[in-house]
From TrEMBL:
<comment type="function">
    <text>Catalyzes oxygen-dependent 5-hydroxyuridine (ho5U) modification at position 34 in tRNAs.</text>
</comment>
<dbReference type="Pfam" id="PF00581">
    <property type="entry name" value="Rhodanese"/>
</dbReference>
<dbReference type="InterPro" id="IPR001763">
    <property type="entry name" value="Rhodanese-like_dom"/>
</dbReference>
<comment type="similarity">
    <text>Belongs to the TrhO family.</text>
</comment>
<keyword id="KW-0560">Oxidoreductase</keyword>
<dbReference type="GO" id="GO:0006400">
    <property type="term" value="P:tRNA modification"/>
</dbReference>
<dbReference type="InterPro" id="IPR040503">
    <property type="entry name" value="TRHO_N"/>
</dbReference>
<dbReference type="Pfam" id="PF17773">
    <property type="entry name" value="UPF0176_N"/>
</dbReference>
<dbReference type="InterPro" id="IPR036873">
    <property type="entry name" value="Rhodanese-like_dom_sf"/>
</dbReference>
<dbReference type="InterPro" id="IPR020936">
    <property type="entry name" value="TrhO"/>
</dbReference>
<feature type="domain" description="Rhodanese">
    <location>
        <begin position="122"/>
        <end position="216"/>
    </location>
</feature>
<protein>
    <recommendedName>
        <fullName>tRNA uridine(34) hydroxylase</fullName>
        <ecNumber>1.14.-.-</ecNumber>
    </recommendedName>
</protein>
<dbReference type="GO" id="GO:0016705">
    <property type="term" value="F:oxidoreductase activity, acting on paired donors, with incorporation or reduction of molecular oxygen"/>
</dbReference>
<keyword id="KW-0819">tRNA processing</keyword>
C-alpha cells in the first residue's frame, strides 16, 4: 500500500480552537490517519498520512472550518506509514515566533510562484534568506541563500534585527519547507518596516515538485518532518544525508 502524505497549514482566526480538537481527532482516528495537527487561535498546521480516501476526508473537514477554504496542502507519497501515532495538539502558535502582534492573516509579503522563483533569486539586488534552522539547511538549500544559522524559528526575529541594516534597500526573498514559516517571517518583516519582501509560495516542497531538476537552483535535499527524513526533486524520498 502507498500512503498519501499531506503537509497543510492555514492562518485563520479560530475563536475557540479547543472546540475543534475532538471532532478532528475522532475523524482522523476513524479514517486511520496518523501524524500531527496543531490548532491555535491563529489557525492550523501539520503533516498527516493515511489512505488517499482518509486524507481527502480530513482535508475536506479542515477546509470547512472558519477561514480555511483556501487551506494550503502539499501532497506526496510514502511506501510505509511515516508516522507512529496521531496527535492533535492545542498550541499558542501554529509556528512559534514569540513576537506579539504578527498576523499573517492580515499582512504578508508578496507570493512568488515556483515557476517565477528562479528569476527572483537570480536578481543580484535581491537578498535570498533561508528561514529554516541550521540543521535543516545542512541537508540542502538554494545556491547563494543566506543561512541565519538559527537553532529554531523563534531565533529568527533576533537574527533579523541584528542584521537588518546589512540588507537595507534590498528586496528580500525568503523561503522555507512548506511556506508556513515564510508567511510568518514576511509578516514579521512587514511589521519591522521592510517594504519589498517576497516569499516562495508553497515553499521548497512546491518548488521541488514543479521545477524540473535541469532548471533547478536547489542544491541537496529537503529535510521533512517524518520518517522519510528528506526528499529531492519530484518529492522522491532521499533519506538521511549521511
Amino acid at each position: 500500500m502507498t500512503f498519501t502524505v499531506a503537509a497543510l497549514y492555514r492562518f485563520a482566526p479560530f475563536d475557540d480552537p479547543a472546540a475543534l480538537r475532538a471532532p478532528l481527532l475522532d475523524l482522523c482516528a476513524a479514517q486511520g490517519v496518523k501524524g500531527t495537527l496543531l490548532l491555535a487561535r491563529e489557525g492550523v498546521n501539520g503533516t498527516i498520512a493515511g489512505s488517499a480516501e482518509g486524507i481527502a476526508a480530513v482535508v475536506a473537514h479542515i477546509r470547512a472550518l472558519p477561514g480555511c477554504a483556501e487551506l494550503d496542502v502539499k501532497y506526496s507519497s510514502a511506501a510505509a506509514m511515516p508516522f507512529q501515532r496521531l496527535k492533535v495538539r492545542l498550541k499558542k502558535e501554529i509556528v512559534t515566533m514569540k513576537v506579539p502582534g504578527v498576523d499573517p492573516a492580515r499582512e504578508v509579503g508578496a507570493y512568488v510562484a515556483p515557476a517565477d522563483w528562479n528569476a527572483v533569486i537570480d536578481d543580484p539586488d535581491t537578498i535570498v534568506i533561508d528561514t529554516r534552522n541550521d540543521f535543516e539547511v545542512g541537508y540542502g538549500s538554494f545556491a547563494g541563500a543566506v543561512n541565519p544559522q538559527t537553532k529554531s524559528f523563534g531565533d529568527f526575529p533576533g537574527w533579523w534585527r541584528d542584521h537588518a541594516a546589512d540588507f537595507a534597500g534590498k528586496r528580500v526573498a525568503m523561503f522555507c519547507t512548506g511556506g508556513i514559516r515564510c508567511e510568518k517571517s514576511t509578516a514579521f518583516l512587514k511589521s519591522e518596516g521592510v517594504a519589498d519582501v517576497v516569499h516562495l509560495k508553497g515553499g521548497i516542497l512546491a518548488y521541488l515538485e514543479q521545477i524540473p531538476e535541469a532548471d533547478s537552483r536547489w542544491q541537496g535535499s529537503c529535510f521533512v518532518f517524518d520518517e522519510r527524513v528528506s526528499v529531492g526533486h519530484g518529492l522522491v524520498e532521499v533519506g538521511d544525508k549521511d
